[in-house]
Amino acid sequence: MSDLAQKLIEESEGVRLTAYRDSLGKFTVGVGHLLDASKDWTGYTITQEQCDSLLQADMGASRSYASAFPHYVEMNEVRQAVCVSMAFQLGSKPLHWPNFMASLKSKDYTGAKDAGLDSLWAQQTPKRATREMDMLESGVWIA
Question: Domain with 130 in it: what CATH number?
């Protein structure tokens, strides 16, 4: 079985074995794995095996957060992938967006899209947010 959530995250985050600063200036490595902010990670590298291990741990935490989204278990695989990707990038923050959560609770995916796009997240990563909210609304994979 394919793992659309991991595919979506890898497409959005990319894979980098050398530490870099993300769009917010935070050191990151692998597939969007945040590093300890108290250290300078310049030049730090990991192996592909370490990258895979970090990704699996991060995916587990993201799936846990995503499972708390209203009606998550009833969503199709594309919508679930969007929820996991949001949790991967934002942690539990979307769980505290009242309009987004209310829309998901009522299965109003257009309302959820609008609420998701009316966020700091959408301002900071507009291309990713737009793609994911379009996928959440439609339930269809968008390349």
Answer: 1.10.530.40
